[in-house]
Give the backbone structure.
Amino acid sequence: MKSDVQSVSCRIRPRAARQATNSKAEAPAAQPQAPISDRYESIGLTGEDLTEDNRIPVLLTFPDEETGKVCKDCTGISDDDRYDLPLVNGFSAYLTPDKVDGLMDLLPEGVELAINKKIRYPQPIAVLAKSVEDADGNPMIKRLPGIEKVWERGFTGKGQTVAVIDSGIYKHPDLKDKVVEWVDFSREKRKTMVDPFGHGTHVAGVLAGNGTKSNGKVKGVAPDANLVGLRITTVAEAIRALQWVIEHKDEHNIKVVNMSLGDFAAKSYKNDPWAQAAQKAIDAGLVVVVAAGNEGPDGKTISTPGINPQAITVGAYDDKGTPDTSDDSVASFSSRGPTVDGLSKPDVLAPGVGIFGPLSPGSNMDVPDFPHIGKDYLA
């Protein structure tokens, strides 16, 4: 097996080598190497992406398994420093600048090298209420119309599980007994439930909070559903979380994957690792619900993995705090289509302004109302 890998590696030439071979004229003298920061700008590196020890988070994907095996061997990145991403035939790693610099010269065509971007969890525009008492009578906070009738039909999420891929889930009274599995994919690998940003807690509460803290007055749209909490901080961790869901969906009866988050979409969904990972989850029979993004009001701002045509991409609407539907509009912050592939997105709008849930700093509430609709379709 070792000899097979070595023989394949001889057939794969770095980009620079191919360019020199294909050139009819004599190769020009080597040019001074551009500063590392300039080189990495082309793959989207910012200062915010660097780790505390100034390592660069990278995400590599390969056109086929054979190339992937060879490149793993050629890069010299140890198993301890690498997180394999079989779902997209790639891996992620935290590397020193000189290591990344070498990779940029070494990798053959067809191999995608990108920055493993951090997830930027949105912060609230404003806090409308900090308690149930504050919410009562507040015209900006209303019960979802008709939700009781939906529950009466039996659509409460009972017996089904939703995987929440987000910033984590705090042990809030409305949630702590509902989380049947917890996995922290971040570098911290926390064994107990935690949510440093608060975003995932709010999402989970709006989705499936059971109303314990408010004596039943405030519940999520699917109050009887179970939850799986999957904490992530980067795009690669989101891909690993999707892999976990696919592998454990039958064990926990996971029907829906909720991702109220995303990243800037710079390429077609066909070549985007996160969008392709979402496709693998869809192919496995899961309903994948994702946020359109918070980059509105301009067009062409749909985030990945929401650019995937088969994912249910949800935008936010603003009811202006009135019962009259004539003044409803797309929320100013909600991302608009088309996607980079020219596809029409989002697929649906859901309440996204003045969402009341577990006290936490979250603003992107344009997804959690929808997984309940997803369950209606499944029933």
